Amino acid sequence: MTAPHPRHRRALAIPAGMAMAASLAFLPGAPASAAETAPTLSADSSSSMSYVVNVRAGHGPSAHVKREIAKAGGTIVTSYDRIGVVVVHSANPDFAKTVRKVRGVQSAGATRTAPLPSAATTDTGAPKVLSGQEIAAAEAAEGQDPLQGLQWDLPAIKADKAHEKSLGSEKVTVAVIDTGVDDTHPDIAPNFDRDASVNCVSGKPDTTDGAWRPSAAESPHGTHVAGEIAAARNGVGMTGVAPGVKVSGIKVSNPDGFFYTEAVVCGFMWAAEHDVDVTNNSYYTDPWYFNCKNDPDQKALVEAVTRASRYAEKKGAVNVAAAGNENYDLSSDEITDPSSPNDTAPGDRVVDPSECLDIPTQLPGVVTVASTGAKGLKSSFSNHGLGVVDIAAPGGDSTAYQKPEPPATSGLILGTLPGGKWGYMAGTSMASPHVAGVAALIKSTHPHASPAMVKALLYAQADATACTKPYDIDGDGKVDAVCEGSKNRNGFYGWGMADALDAVTR
């Protein structure tokens, strides 16, 4: 089986002819936590690049470092002083090389390979929107939302049983760090947390009302993810995994569909300072699928996002991320990456995934989620790897490979779409929010639990799932992936399938 072409988001676009539609994964005045902004200068965006400068621990972004940034031709966009990360624009092609020599600077690197604004566009695909006929034909049990019968993924993690016990607490918030969330959707509006929502695309928080929403031309990815997590149980549409918790939108994807480092850092920092309990990250940080530590630019990107994600966890957030959709074994000695850098001219490169990291997926402390289909098998596209994948959850698969039981009709995952619609997508992008929802239920049950405790419960409560051997998902007689490990922990399912019922009863 050939792995799907790499996609920017952790979801897939698949021909409808396969019965699988396109799819895709600082308060002002609070200096201890705010993004502290230095005076900015004008710069010619047509030739400028964006950079992150990471100050050595204990130094802080000192006046000395900031002066040297300016001397090197840099314009400070914002400075996250709590983690020592400075976002800079510069038209000086030697900016990073110059600043790396400055006393107090640990690393510095360009966050992209194309000048501002980026010159390329990422293919986002389009979801399969439910027709009026499909909505009318949907079957749901008494007490369920009208479309719940199409959601085979809820019983797969026992969320339907969990909802008989608890819907989750409104005091718990899950932040969707993604392409933006349409908070006007009738299934999202009841649970939307505006105060914890923001636009971080520039690397600096934009708190303009509604700035967190996707434009009509932008991807519905984030809105779909938000509905999977917390679509309200309100007699309308579908039901989320944790329909009683709050959800916020942190927009980090630019109009071209890229998730650059400065935006991702801003997203984690915003979540950290706004009492977010769980973050969902169904993407990889552009333009490199894998960021190699022996490259000075990529090393700086890893360091910046690591600092931000660790800070979010320190402030109380469990960070959950999608494993990716290329059917890669992330525990192997080498992987051929044909997709990087994706904002200019990608080319094949061989990487060691233990040294070249998919961020935030492979960062310390992040919950890495693999995808399963309607039959409970690893999705055909899902990345895997013993010691890398922590847990599994439904992300969908081709209906031809894993067909759900009636009344569900599609092997994909139902979610909310902008404009008050519902539709199907598939990918580890869809698996990750299921785990984020279960983590939110655990936090609801154990409100004083630390992120470490929530993760420990998440893994302990997961339903152990044995390796599928041989794994020939398309039935062509060839092994499509190799699962290593025991039933209790392996490369396909990690500690097992997420369990929403245990999350509310144990």
From TrEMBL:
Top-level taxon of origin: Bacteria
SUPFAM superfamilies: Subtilisin-like
Region (Disordered): 106-126
Molecular function terms from GO: serine-type endopeptidase activity
Active site: D178, H221, S429
Sequence intervals crossing the membrane: none
Chain ranges of the Peptidase S8/S53 domain: 170-496
Keywords for the protein's UniProt record, in alphabetical order: Hydrolase, Protease, Serine protease, Signal
Record-level GO BP terms: proteolysis
Pfam families (alphabetical): Peptidase_S8 (PF00082)
Residues spanning the signal sequence: 1-34
Cited InterPro entries: Peptidase_S8/S53_dom (IPR000209), Peptidase_S8/S53_dom_sf (IPR036852), Peptidase_S8_Asp-AS (IPR023827), Peptidase_S8_His-AS (IPR022398), Peptidase_S8_Ser-AS (IPR023828), Peptidase_S8_subtilisin-like (IPR050131), Peptidase_S8_subtilisin-rel (IPR015500)
Family: Belongs to the peptidase S8 family.
Protein name: Peptidase S8
